[in-house]
Amino acid sequence: GAVVSQHPSWVICKSGTSVKIECRSLDFQATTMFWYRQFPKQSLMLMATSNEGSKATYEQGVEKDKFLINHASLTLSTLTVTSAHPEDSSFYICSARAQGAGEQYFGPGTRLTVT
Amino acid sequence: SQKIEQNSEALNIQEGKTATLTCNYTNYSPAYLQWYRQDPGRGPVFLLLIRENEKEKRKERLKVTFDTTLKQSLFHITASQPADSATYLCAPSLRYGQNFVFGPGTRLSVLP
Predict the structure, then answer these.
(1) CB proximity under 8 Å: A 31-90 to B
(2) Helix (H, G, I), strand (E, B), or coil: what is residue A20?
(3) Which of A28, A52, B10, B100 could share a disulfide with B107, CB 3.0–4.6 Å?
């Protein structure tokens, strides 16, 4: 149980375009979903937290207009990187947490490369 | 500000030995602490959660301790195997269900 999927697993896009990444909890209802970014040889950095049906809460330094998050249902959250630039190239990982739970279950990650 | 440190960036041990990883935190008092494993190019996998009123938690070959006086958690893998090679992340949180911050991780290599 507690499986989280992400799609796509990797994507290459041109500078200036937008990319959408999906995160789904497959066998549980995720009242809260998280989006992280991880650069090579670094730990995960939390970008934002989203509760189903509410606006996402962004961490300091994360541009909400650039990283659009939608958590429209208890099993789906999306992250859209708008007007992507090469410095946005990174490994993006989502996680999901059920109501009342402490642990998070992570997706396999999406490798974004902006050329 | 809150700070999380993990004992070393990398740790090499011989197969069959016990691996001990350390997580130290400063400037706050978490009520819960979690340990995750991350393999290269993959998302972290939840391993264990320990509460502040629990001294120790075990799961198969894994053992976690939580010393709120020392502000430290130890993560042990007994009878280590090459398949245990991965990066291990600790994640303290102030309250159950609250967001947490990951430590920098320790990359464990178990040598055959």
Answers:
(1) 34, 42-44, 46, 49
(2) strand
(3) B10
